[in-house]
Specification:
Structural class: alpha+beta
Shape: rod-shaped
Strand content: 15-25%
Bound molecules: zinc ion
Largest sheet: 2 strands, antiparallel
Number of domains: 2
Number of helices: 3
Distance between the termini: 61 Å
Helix content: 25-40%
Length: 116
């Protein structure tokens, strides 16, 4: 069984419409789906090619937006950049992080250098 990259329907290889793109054969349920794919293949390319290799990305912090308390520093910024890069490259990645109820951690040092 194959998956039509346009409508996501499972199809048998014997009866499918076919097209070749980037050295790979794609199968379609109908000439209509094949036409949609051929008109804009990059729109659908990653939906099937990477479906079996989708990435789950977990990080304690991911900086998505400065107003969202999902990060406090460098790790979150790095994770946010990673998620954005994956989106730009259309990598099928789901990112999961924590949403902190009390927001960021603020470090304070007293005159003795002790964290308070
Ligand atoms: Zn289809």
């Amino acid at each position: 069984m194959a998956v039509d990259p346009v409508c996501r329907m499972r199809i048998s290889e014997e009866s499918a419409e076919k097209t070749l793109y980037k050295g790979r054969t794609f199968l379609f349920c109908s000439p209509d789906c094949k036409g949609k794919f051929e008109k804009d293949p990059e729109r659908f390319y990653h939906s099937v090619t990477d479906a079996s290799a989708a990435v789950a990305y977990f990080s304690m912090e991911i900086a998505l937006e400065s107003g969202m308390p999902t990060y406090s520093g460098g790790l979150g910024v790095l994770a946010g950049d990673t998620v954005r890069s994956a989106a730009d490259l259309k990598v099928p990645m789901a990112a999961v992080t924590l949403l902190y109820r009390r927001g960021y951690f603020y470090q304070r040092l007293d005159s003795n250098g002790t964290q308070t």
